[in-house]
Amino acid sequence: MANSWRERWPERSSERQRRDVELVRGLVRSIPDFPRAGILFRDIMPVLRDAVALQAAFRLHLDTVAELAQPLDAVMAIESRGFLFGMCLAQALELAFVPVRKLGKLPGETLQDRYQLEYGQGTLEVHADALKAGTRVLILDDLLATGGTCAAAIRLARRLDADVRACVFLIELDGIHGREELAPVPVASILHY
After folding, report:
1. How far apart are CA 129 and CA 133, in angstroms?
2. Which residues contact 20 (CB under 8 A, 6 or more apart)?
3. Which of 168, 170, 167 is nearest to 190 (CA)?
4. Rounded mean pLDDT of 79-106?
5. Out of 59, 81, 165, 179, which one is annotated catalytic?
6. Catalytic annotation on 165?
7. What is the CATH number of the domain that holds 170?
8. Which of 172, 116, 125 is nearest to 149 (CA)?
């Protein structure tokens, strides 16, 4: 991993991390009954609208990846909110960026994987030439609930013979136990609800 991001954010103290977590958590909005009745949606859009909170969230992503201490070649981010931090993280760490998109959004030859959501089904796809065999990949998304979406991304990466090193999330819903779906891949989450 490149060290350029360390020069821009040299302070990696537990006190700074605590302040960043507090700031970001304070802006995550809970929206009941979205996208359907019975779902409590954790909305990160207020974090994105606040420049200071956005920087804090990004620093927390960098800290989380640094704590994993894994050599990486690419960030594989899941549509659409995973893209928000995934591209920036890839750029800061000088890694390749691989988008995992919903069905029908990528041109050319793709691989597809169906998965179960807590409120339905979906299909993810990735370009068939997105990763070379042995590429060390970090998978990133905004939220871990049931783990179905990220498990699909892991399966896609493995079909490309990539080495999935870890999965990182801004938010994890602990009571749903989604990380169990991703085992044995290491999982790191910044906020827990």
Report:
1. 10
2. 56, 57, 59, 60
3. 170
4. 96
5. 81
6. no
7. 3.40.50.2020
8. 116
Confidence at residue 6, expressed as pLDDT on a 0 to 100 scale: 53
Domain that holds residue 148: 12-192
Q: Is residue 108 part of a domain?
A: yes
- Would you call 67 exposed, middle or buried from its count of C-beta atoms within 10 A (0-12, 13-18, 19+)? exposed
Cis link prior to 184 (omega < 30° from 0)?
A: yes
Instruction: Say whether pLDDT at 7 is over 60.
Output: no
pLDDT tens sequence across 129-177:
999 999 999 999 999 999 999 999 999 999 999 999 999 999 999 999 9
Over residues 86-109, the mean pLDDT reads: 97
The Cα–Cα gap between 61 and 85 comes to: 8
Kindly list the distances between the CA atom of residue 148 and the CA atoms of 76, 120, 121, in Å, as whole numbers in the listed order.
16, 11, 9
Minimal CA–CA distance to 160: which of 74, 84, 65? 74
Count of domains observed in the chain: 1
Q: Is residue 5 situated within a structural domain?
A: no
Q: Is residue 4 in a domain?
A: no
Average pLDDT over residues 174-181: 95
Mean pLDDT over residues 83-102, rounded?
A: 97
Catalytically annotated residue among 118, 136, 155, 159: 118
Would you call 179 a catalytic residue per the annotation?
A: no
